[in-house]
Amino acid sequence: MAVAVETLRWCPAGHLEMIDQTRLPAVFEYRRYTSAAEVAEGIRSMVVRGAPAIGVAAAYGVALEALRLRDFPHTRFDQELDAGFQALAASRPTAVNLFWALRRMRECWSAKGTLDAPALAAALLDEAHAIHAEDIRINRAMGVHGADLLTDGARVLTHCNAGALATAGHGTALGVIRSAVEAGKRISVIADETRPFLQGARLTAWEMVQEKIPVTLITDNMAGFMMSRGEIDAVVVGTDRVAANGDVANKIGTYMVAVLAHRHRIPFYVACPLSTIDRALASGAEIPIEERTADEVTGYRDCQWAAQGVAVRNPAFDITPAELVTALITEKGVVHAPDREKLAALF
Ligand code: MRU
Questions:
Q1: How, if at all, do strands 215-218 and 188-192 pair?
Q2: Ligand 1 pocket, residue 251 CB under 6 Å
């Protein structure tokens, strides 16, 4: 299925291309990747970001590594491919889709282990293509379920970027908005800027402007004011990992938005593919939270505005307790007031 923004694309010459999201919206350009180590660096440096997109990139990273090693002796092939898996797994800690995709690729490796290296590499590439295509189908399905929750004329606040750029295409939270627009609803978006990496200002705003979906940018500290004035009808966000009890990890600042939405009785929806639910973790307290470097907080790119030498914290994600989540939107349907039992029933 055609998608508006091709975040990642496989080139028949045998390499992966990914839009460099660190340079958007000023520069739109693809970077080329030919090994697992390069893709791991692309994930770490956030050339590609967003939970589902990271998973798809990692799957292609494994396939690239197998292709790179295909003429090597068996033992070296196995050792270096395993090292490729490890490099990818170490790239970012919070989004579970990364580990989900790597597990699928390992399962494929085990299942096809008797093939010679070129045939195994081809099988791994097929699996990466399948993960890529599935992600778009899943986003479309979530979009259809989620669109029903939005009324005609709804003003929808979103935090971070859970759009086409964060996935293989269509998006999770922005996928819900896109599907509602496709269904003929007049939806307008309020995009939180999303300090410190500015995914809202740089990426969500860019996606919406490209598609002419009305969008208004606010700084993160304006959301409460907008809600208190009755200017927001619903919140829709994505997620990086949902624990078995329904607690939601998402971009830092999401918890603040959820508390505000609760205070103002505004529905708080989380678009969540099943691959983002981590049934191994009992609650959000167990979700590893990435801590990023101080320079993202003290300034932006070459400009530093904070006092030299100040201590800095930079947790990249926070946890919204399940009790603040009005509903999870999954590809299997909408789960209202999510809890352990309802999540278990999805599988
Ligand atoms: O640090 P990022 O940009 O990778 O964080 C992305 C988010 O928090 C998104 O909201 C989440 O991954 C859902 S994307 C469909």
A1: parallel
A2: yes
Does ligand 1 lie within 6 Å of residue 172's CB atom? yes
One digit per residue, the tens of pLDDT, for the chain of length 347 reads 456 789 999 999 999 999 999 999 999 999 999 999 999 999 999 999 999 999 999 999 999 999 999 999 999 999 999 999 999 999 999 999 999 999 999 999 999 988 999 999 999 999 999 999 999 999 999 999 999 999 999 999 999 999 999 999 999 999 999 999 999 999 999 999 999 999 999 999 999 999 999 999 999 999 999 999 999 999 999 999 999 999 999 999 999 999 999 999 999 999 999 999 999 999 999 999 999 999 999 999 889 999 999 999 999 999 999 999 999 999 999 999 999 999 999 99
Q: Both tokens of residue 273?
A: 């593919």
Residue nearest to atom 10 of ligand 1 (CA): 238
**What are the residue ranges spanned by the domains of the chain?**
8-139, 146-345
3-class DSSP state of 269: strand
Domain 146-345: CATH superfamily, name plus number: Translation initiation factor eif-2b; domain 2 (3.40.50.10470)
Give the domain 8-139 fold: Four Helix Bundle (Hemerythrin (Met), subunit A) (1.20.120)
CA atoms lying within 13 Å on the CB side of residue 2: 1
Among the listed residues 79, 99, 80, 101, the one whose alpha carbon sits nearest the alpha carbon of residue 90:
99
Task: Look at ligand 1, atom 5, and give the residue with the nearest C-alpha.
Answer: 50
User: Which of these is catalytic: 192, 240, 247, 318?
Assistant: 240
